[in-house]
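Sequence in, structure out. Go.
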Amino acid sequence: MRKIIEIMMLTAAIMALCGCADRNRITLELKRQDDGVLEQAQLTDTDFKVCKDFKKTGKDTYNDLTAAYETMYAYIVDGRYLIAYQDRDVNKMCVYDLDSLKDGAFLEYVVQYRHSFSFTDNMKAVYLKTAMKDAGFLDQPYFTYYDEEGNVKLEIYFDESGTGCGICYDAYDYEYTGERKGFVFREYYETAWEEGNPVLWFEPEEYFKDVESCKTGEYSEIRNYEEHYEYNDAGQVTGFFAKGETDLFTDEWIPINIASYTCEYNKDGSKKKEELFRHSMLFGTSMSTADCHYDETGRITYIHSYITHGSLDYFFIYEDDGAVPAYGGVIDHNPGMDDGVLYRYVR
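Output:
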């Protein structure tokens, strides 16, 4: 057995990597062997918490993220990156840049929980290698989605096998946490566009069909229903607004916005952007709001929709001038965790 010749003590705040810099500092005991390669280290902290929501709430919120662990294990690769994982949960792993250790905390890191990642900007390359493992993907994203202001909203990486990952760029989230959010595609499917087309759920005729119950009087909690439309010079609908009165929330009848729809158009008359709304207390919280974005030819490219536990983002990738995308996917944003599914649309 090789002789252990050096023991190096580092102090790190794991929860600083999850937004809780002053909460839990742990002691890292690294046992370095005579060839300079660190094989294993043990981290001990009986009060270690996984929940990333601690910073906002002051308490752990989600039971599946709050198990306390007494022991963690770690090793170093390339002489620079410390990889730590919990002995009873291999789905929780952290990668730290040893050179970023300052005042007892690592400033550069990648944190993985199941299929979801959080990482700092300077660790993007490490995140991609960690998420994609040995898959043969390009260093540049296969697909990048930009918002109307030209800001990057989403990057997608994948190879021909369907193995892939992505990065969500949320300006508000980044300002609050200083982290980027990543995910790996946990599932990959090949399907016909006609069978797996989620856009149909957001077609106005489908999305607002239940509003008819308010209009016809079938919905007894609604009275004095009114609706009006707005049009552009070409006669296209630019807005639809429905309102009325309800006693659903109080003993008295009060005004309520039942549903609304707005649409912007490209110069050629094709759709550019739609915003849809239907009241969640009347029609359920799932997809109660949605933003649909189209390219310059009117093809759907991105949908952001509210869902009860968070939000869903749909994206669509075109490889030619056809109307049917080659790939598509959905990103499920749960509290503290993102999940992705990738589709290849076969013809």
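Check: The first strand starts at residue 4 and ends at 12. The chain is about 10% helix and 50% strand.
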